[in-house]
Amino acid sequence: MHIREIVLEGFKSYATRTTVGPFDEHFNAITGLNGSGKSNILDSICFVMGITSLSQVRAQALSDFIYKQGTAGVTRASVSIMFDNRNKEQAPDGYKMFDELTVTRIVESNKSKYLLNGKNATQSAIHDLFKSVSLNVNNPRFLILQGQVTKVSKSKPQEILGLIEEAAGTRMYDQKKAEALKTIAKKDDKLKEIRTTIDTDITPTINKLQQDEQNYKMYTELKKRYKLVNDQLIAYEYWQLITSVKQTETDVENMELQTNQCQKRNGLITDEIQQIHSEVKVIEKERNENVGNEVSELQTVYDKQLIELRNLTNDNDRVSKQLTQYKQQLTDSEQQHKQLTNSIEQLEKDIDSSREELGELDKKVLTDTEHVKQLQRRHEAVSTGTAVVGSSSQAVSGPNDDSRLTNKEKLDKYKEQRGEVSTKIKQLQQRIDHSSGELKKLRTEQKSLTSKQGSYSTMHTEFDKKKSTLNQCEKDLAKLQFDVERLKQYRTDVRNDDENMARDQNRLQQMKRQNHQLDFQYTNPTPNFDRTKHVHGLVATLFNINDKKYAQALELAAGGKLFNVVVDTDETSKAKKYLLTK
C-alpha cells in the first residue's frame, strides 16, 4: 500500500485546493525553494494519519492547521490521501476488497473529524488501520522528521526495542495486550467486589430468605392444622347448637300445641257463647212477658262471663308468650350460671394460688433481707479491717480485697434478687386485684340471674292462677248447655258463604280486567257532587242487547263512541278534566 495522491485545501500555506501527485511506487522527492511548502506536505501526511503530538508538525492547536489560522476568510482545513491498495499482501486487515483507500481529515472550529472512503470514522479506527500495516505515525520507523536522527541516536535500549517492535508490526498488539491486561485487572477487581458482595450481602440474604421460606412453610402447615382443628371445633359447636335448637324446638312445639289447644277451646267457648246469645234473644222474644226478669239476669251473667272470658283469653295469650320468653331466658341463665360458677371457681383457685405464692415470696423477701443485712455488716467489717491492714502491709491487704469484692458481689446479687422478688410481688398483687374485681363482677351477675329465676317462678305461679280461673269459666259455661252440632253446622255454612263470596269476587275482578275499558272512574269536580244525578256512565253500559248476534255489528258501527261519557248537562261536561281521570 503506497500513496498515490494528496489533496490539500486550506491547510497551512495551501489556501486553495491543491493536488500533489501522482506519486511513484518506489521513489519520490519533493523539491522547491525555501518557504514553498515542502515541509507542509510531510505535515499533511502526519496530520491525516492522526499524529497526537502537534509540536512535531509545528503546531500548538488545531486552528494552526488552517490557512493563516482562519483570518484570511478560510475557516476550515482538509487533507485527503489516496492510497493504492492493489497489492493485497500489504493491504490492511478488513480492507483487502478495496483497490483504493481514501483517508480524509477535516478541521473546523477546533473540531476534527475523519472520513474513510467517504464515511465517518474515529481516530482510533484510523490508527488501527495504519498500525495494521506498520505505519504508526506516533512512533514512526518509516518517517524521519526534523531532529529525529539525533533523537534516535540518543534513544535508550527500551526505546530502540520499541522502534524494532514497531518495524516488526508487533507494537500494536503489545499495546492492545497492555490495554487488555488493564481491562482484565479492572474486571478482576470488579469480580472481587462482586464476590465480596455475594459473600457479605447476597449469601446471608439468601440464607435468611431460605430460613424465612422454612418458617413460612412451617407457618402454612400450622395454619392448615389450625384451620382443620378450628373447622372441627366449629362443627362440634354447630352440632351442639343444632342439638340445642332441636330440643328448644321440641319444647316450643309442645308449648304451641298446648297454646293451640287452649285457643281452640277458647274459640269453641266463644262460639258457644255467641250461640247462647242468639238463643237468648229468641227466648227473649218468645217469653218476653213471662221470663223477662230471668232472661235479664241471665244476660247480665252472660255479659260478665263474656268480659271475664275475654280478659282471661288475653291474659292467657300474654302469659303464654311471657312463659316462652322466660323459659328461653331461664335456659340462657342456667348456661350463664354454669359458666359463671366455673369462672368463679377458677378465679378462686388462681387467687389462692397467687396468695400462697405471695406468702412464699414474702418469706423469701424476709430471709433475703436478713441475709442482705448480714452481708452489709460483714461488708462494713471487712472494709474497716481492710483499711487498717492496708496502711501497714500491702501483701496482707490483697486477700482482704478479694474477700471484700466477693462480699460486695454477693450483696449486689442479693439486692438484684430482692428487686426481682419485689417486682414479682407487685405483679402477683396486680393479678390478685384483677381477679378479685372479676370475681365481684361474676358474683353480681350470679345474683342478677338468681333474681331472674325468682321472677320466672313468680310468672309461672301467675300463669297457674290464670289457668285455674280459665278452667272455672269453662265449667261455668258448661252449665249453660247448648247444641254443639248446631254450632258446627252454622260454622260450616259461614265458611261456605265466605268461599262463594271469594269466588264471585275473583270472577268479578277477572271480568274487570278483560273489560278494563268499561271501568270508568273519576274524581268529583266539586264537593257534594251527586254522581247518580249528573253522570250516567259510559254509553256501552247504558243499554242491553236482546239478541247477541247484533253485538259485533253494533260494536263495529259505534266504534270508540261506545266509551263516551254520558252526563246530564253541558255544565257537567265542562268538568271533563275530572271525568277523564281514571
From TrEMBL:
Q: Which residues form a coiled coil?
A: 295-364, 470-514
Q: What is its main location?
A: nucleus
Which region ranges are annotated with the description Disordered?
Answer: 376-408, 428-453
Locations of Low complexity compositional bias?
382-398
Give its localization.
Answer: Nucleus
Q: Which residues cross the membrane?
A: none
Recorded hits in CDD domains, A to Z, give: ABC_SMC2_euk
Source organism superkingdom: Eukaryota
Q: What region holds the SMC hinge domain?
A: 533-575
Recorded protein name is Structural maintenance of chromosomes protein 2
Write the lineage as a comma-separated list. Answer: Eukaryota, Metazoa, Spiralia, Gnathifera, Rotifera
